[in-house]
Each structure stands twice: as structure tokens, then as C-alpha cells.
Design a protein that fits this description.
By secondary structure, the chain is an alpha/beta fold. It has 2 domains: about 60 residues, Ubiquitin-associated (UBA) domain (Helicase, Ruva Protein, domain 3, Orthogonal Bundle); about 200 residues, 3-Layer(aba) Sandwich (Rossmann fold), CATH 3.40.50. It has 11 helices and 11 strands. A 7-stranded mixed β-sheet has the order 7-6-5-8-9-11-10, sandwiched between helices. Helix 8 links the parallel strand 6 and strand 7. The longest helix has 13 residues. The relative contact order is 0.11.
């Protein structure tokens, strides 16, 4: 295949990719392919490049493979994270948990726990914001723990982040000032895009008939894991605020639901009430 102008490659790729953000997807893939930034593409639209190997990336995206799996990376909270099919792709919506923690923590937490850490995104973002803190990430998947460990190394946070296998907070004797968690919360029969259902780990998505199974496991563990005055922030489905708050109240928590930038309920913050067990 002869060399082609960047502008022509992007136009053809966007048409081939389709979907909601075809031009953006094409720019991200071509920048990854060339080892440059998207800004470089826009500044040099007439640059001639070999488009043959790029077409293979375009074909993968057109077939529904997520951009993050093709490039092997995803930005979260300004951190450049490695991503594989073994972990949930970090979403900008999940940054709401970090924003809420920054707003509600009365003082910087010394110890942070991330339950179901996956790629390590939440824990590493929190450690990035709290430079004196150390943290522990728990996951049941050895493959996910390997990804999280690599991300701690590539973000320069390996000395302050520890990862270990576990079933949520089961067996942990330590107490933490801040607990973060993005559990599975999708009901088994809930419709999902083919891209998500086919390419992301089901164990990180589905949580029983009503999507609440993992909250029922996690919430009873939290009173024994939170330090006095500590804060827990859990991601939720946009229609689950009332249900999760009710489950939390059964464990002695005061719950507050918080929206994301789109105005949809995204997470719930939890503090033990005066009558709660500490």
C-alpha cells in the first residue's frame, strides 16, 4: 500500500470505524500507531505515512474491540495506565469517586483500601493525590493483580501501593482511613453494548439478578475495616442510589449519593453513624 496523507487516513478510518466517536477513535489509533500525540496529527495533516499496518488496528476497532485493548493503555486521573482484557477499562465517570473523597475527607488519609482494584486505577489515583499515604488493593483475579502491580510501577507509586489476592475485605484485620470500591453492579439481564459484553470481564460487570449481590457481601465487612472517622466511597449504577443506601443503613452507615458530571448518580459515600459499630 502506498504512503498516504494523515488527513486521508483519518477520514477513511473514521468511515470504516463508525459508531459514536469515529473520528476520535481514528485519531487515537493513528497517534498510537505512529508513537505521537493527537496534536501532532492535526498539526501535520499532509505528512505521508505507511497506512498498511494501521489498517489492521482500524479493522479491530471496526469489529468492536475497545480502543484501550488495542492500544493497551488508558488515561485515568491524568495517570497513564496499562489495560488488558483481564480488567475493567477505567472510565472517566469513576473519577467521581476520587473527587468525592477529596471533598469529604476531613484530613488526608494515611491508609487507603481499594476493594476489587482491577487495574489499580482508584488506588493509584488516590495515592497520587495523597503523597503521604500508602494503600492496599485487593482483587480475586491474579491477572488483574499483575496489571495493577505494573501500573503502580509505571506511575512511580510502587513503593506506596501493595496488592494482594482476596475476597473483598474478608480476612483483613487492618482499618483504613479511606476505602474505595467499584464493584460489579450490573443485573444479569441488563442490556449492554456488544463491545462491553464481548470484551470486558464478566466477573467485573455482573452482580446477580438485581445487580446488588456484591454490595450485600461488601457492606457488612466495611464497619470492621473503617478507622474511626473514616470514609468509604462505592461506585453504583445510576438507579441504585436508594437501594445501596438502604443496605448501608442496615450496617449503621450514613449514606450520601453523588452524581457524576452528566448528573447521573455515580457513587455513594458512607460514614458510620454515631450508633454504628466501630
Amino acid at each position: 500500500m502506498p504512503a498516504q496523507r494523515i488527513a486521508d487516513l483519518l477520514r477513511t478510518a473514521a468511515t470504516r470505524i463508525g459508531g459514536e466517536t469515529p473520528r476520535l477513535d481514528a485519531e487515537v489509533l493513528l497517534a498510537h500507531h505512529l508513537g505521537c500525540t493527537r496534536g501532532d496529527l492535526l498539526l501535520h495533516p499532509d505528512r505521508a505515512v505507511d497506512g498498511e499496518s494501521f489498517q489492521a488496528l482500524v479493522d479491530r476497532r471496526a469489529a468492536g474491540e475497545p480502543i484501550a485493548h488495542i492500544t493497551g493503555r488508558r488515561e485515568f486521573w491524568s495517570l497513564d495506565l496499562a489495560v488488558t482484557p483481564d480488567v475493567l477499562i477505567p472510565r472517566p465517570d469513576s473519577e467521581t469517586l476520587i473527587e468525592v473523597a477529596l471533598r469529604l475527607c476531613a484530613q488526608p488519609p494515611a491508609r487507603i483500601l481499594d476493594l476489587g482494584t482491577g487495574s489499580g486505577a482508584l488506588l493509584l489515583a488516590a495515592l497520587h493525590e495523597y503523597p503521604a499515604a500508602t494503600g492496599l488493593g485487593i482483587d480475586a483475579s491474579p491477572a488483574a493483580l499483575a496489571v495493577a502491580t505494573e501500573n503502580a510501577r509505571r506511575t512511580g507509586l510502587a513503593q506506596r501501593a501493595q496488592f494482594q489476592s482476596g475476597n473483598w475485605g474478608e480476612g483483613l484485620a487492618e482499618r483504613f482511613d479511606l476505602i474505595l470500591c467499584n464493584p460489579p453492579y450490573i443485573a444479569e439481564d441488563e442490556p449492554l453494548s456488544p463491545e462491553v459484553r464481548a470484551h470486558e470481564p464478566a466477573t467485573a460487570l455482573f452482580a446477580g439478578a438485581d445487580g446488588l449481590d456484591d454490595y450485600r457481601r461488601i457492606l457488612p465487612q466495611l464497619p470492621g475495616l473503617l478507622a474511626p472517622g473514616g470514609l468509604a466511597v462505592l461506585e453504583i449504577g445510576w438507579q441504585q442510589g436508594r437501594a445501596v443506601s438502604a443496605l448501608a443503613a442496615e450496617q449503621g452507615f450514613l449514606a450520601e449519593v453523588h452524581p457524576d458530571l452528566a448528573g447521573r448518580d455515580r457513587c455513594v459515600s458512607l460514614r458510620l453513624s454515631c450508633g454504628g459499630t466501630e
